[in-house]
Amino acid sequence: RIAAKTDWECRRNEIKKDIEKYEIGPKPEPPTVKASLSGSTLNVEVTTTSGSITLSSTTSGSGNCVVIGMNSNSSLVTGCVQVPFKHDQVVGYNNGSGTQNQSDPFYKVYPSLWGKIGNYSAWSWGISRLIDGLEQVKDQLKIDTTKIAVHGCSYAGKMALFGGAFDERVALTVVQESGGGGINAWRTSEDFTTRTGTNVEKIDNTNYAWFMSSMRSLDPYSLPHDHHELIAMIAPRAVIILGNPDYEWLGDESGYKSVMAAIEVFKALGVPDHIGYDFSGGHSHCQAASSQTTAVKAFVDRFLKGGTGATNIAVKPSSSKFDLDYTKVIDWTTPTLK
Fold it and tell me: What is the model's pTM?
C-alpha cells in the first residue's frame, strides 16, 4: 500500500502494465516524429525502423488551449483549437465490426505487434503522436500544450479515456457515455447482469478487435486491476464523466460504482474536485443534457482556461433497476497520503 503522494507515479505505472498485459497489449514507446503545419492542416510523420506513416488533422478554431476530438471536432469543448484525431489513420474502426486488418497503417510501423494488441492500444498511441506533433508546432498554432483536452462519446468515449489515462500530457479528459470497456468496472458489470438479468457490455461480450481476443476468457473477479483504476490513472489531472441511464446497454450502475471507487484515489491525492460526473438522462445517445454541457464548460474553464469556478459536479444515474450502494464493492479504507 502506498504511503506518499510521490508513490502514486509507481502505482500508476503498475496499473498501466496490468491493463496492457490483460486488455489491450503494449502501447509502443515514442518513435521518431516530425510535424509540420500547412495552412490549417497538421501533418505528423511517424517513423520507425520498419517504415513511416503520416497522421493528418485539419485544425480549426482559436484559443491557447487544444481539444483532440475522437474522429471529429469536439461538440462539448469550446473556445479551444480543435485538432480531431482521425482514428482510421492508425487502425480502422470498421463500423465497430469487431475485426482487425493487418494492412492498417499502424502495422506498417509496428509489424511485430500484429495479433498482439487491441485497437485501444493503437488508438491511444495515435493520440500521443498527435500531441508530439502539437508540441513541435505550438508556436505556429499559438497554443499552450499544457492545456490539452481529449473528448469522445461511446466507443470514442473509451478511446478518449484510454488516451487521457495513458498520456500524462492530457490536462482534461472528457469521457461521454463510454459504457463497458470504458468507465465501467468489469466486476460491477458482471454483478449487474447477474442481479437483474439485463445483459450489458462485459469482459465476455465486448469487442475483441478493440481489446485483445485473449480477454474473452478472463475472470473479471480475478483480474489484478479494474477500470476504476483506468479512470484513476488520470489523477491528479482532471476528468469529467458523462453517462446516460436511459440506455441500459451503457451499464451506468456499473459506471457509477467504478467512478465512486476512482474518486477515492483523487481524494487520497488531495484533488477530489479534479473528477466530476453527470449521469443525467432524458437525451439521445451522445447528445449531452444541458447540465452535462454546463459541467464540461466548468471543467474547461478551470483546467484549460485558468478559471477558478467550482468543479465539484456529482449527478447520480437514476433507474428503477439500479442499486447505487457502492459501499458493497469498495471494501477498503482510503489511505492518507503524505
Answer: 0.98
